[in-house]
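Input (Large ribosomal subunit protein uL6m):
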Amino acid sequence: MRLILNRCLRHVPKGYICKFSSTSTAFSKIGKSPVIIPDTVRLNKIILPKSKNPRETPISRLQVKGPRGKLYLHLPPFIKVTQTPIPSSTSRRATITVEDAKNRQQREMWGTSRSNLQKLVLGVTEGHSAILRLVGVGYRAMIENEGKLLQMRLGYSHTIKMPVPEGVECSVPTPTRILLEGVDKTKVNQFASRIREWRIPEPYKGKGIFINEETINIKVKKVK
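Output:
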């Protein structure tokens, strides 16, 4: 087996072999960067009950609580979050470390955990948003049932009705604009994607539902 592998590697350019570890290195660099925690945000570690299955790796949750609500970050056992005060500031510095920086899996989770913590802090302080633009003749949106039901007219024979998921605020500033807001970026983006699926932008007439600054290159139909 080793002989076959060595023969295969002879035909692989050296540059491609090095690229396999570049992602992990990048993640470790991201992980080393501290996250600034405002004085309005609190981080609380919650230890989850041990699983009855001995094979399952125990994990903990980090509660991120701020003015707009609270979110949770799942942490593997080798991840540690340390908070230190910042001189002449009411904010704190949160640093994420791992047990073994040479372990590839830990390096990848290092950067991922840091990025997720940054998103959660932003979510509970400022919140996340997405703006959807309805482009098409007769395309309209309206909100009903005290903001819990989104209705859209998108050129179909019927009106599209979509319940607004919990944790997401939906408003219609204009008939062709839908504003989604929430503390959880994933929930906001997922609902925006579900709305977009009803009219994915098409490249010939430029019609569809566009998210934020999304654009599309218009194609010219070939004349036979």
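The chain has two domains: 31-49+57-125, 128-211.
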